[in-house]
Amino acid sequence: MGYYIQGPLKNKGDFLVEQYNARECSQIEAFVYIKDPNEIGICVVDNGPFEAAALCYSENEFMRFSNQNDLRPKRWYLINRAKACELTGFIDS
Q1: What is the pLDDT of residues 3-57, one digit of tens each?
Q2: Distance CA 64, CA 70 (A)
């Protein structure tokens, strides 16, 4: 099941930076932060008419968005882990 941060239909990365002090990062850096207690990776996927900001809460979820066959444009961000869980409804264990 996916967990997403709601926001504007487009420019979701800018929204994350402005509203939640997210910072853009590399795909590799987002992977490294999967288990970090302070920050967590978000993948912003461009679906054409809208963008989705997906929480990469596990290696499996990260791999879903890292699929080389998925040609949709993606950008990666790090955001405060507690805030991301609050915004998405994900219960961190």
Answers
A1: 999 999 999 999 999 999 999 999 999 999 999 999 999 999 999 999 999 999 9
A2: 9
| 0.85 exceeded by pTM | yes
Provide the domain limits for residue 43. Answer: 4-88
Residue 42: inside a domain, yes or no? yes
Per the structure, the count of domains in the chain is 1
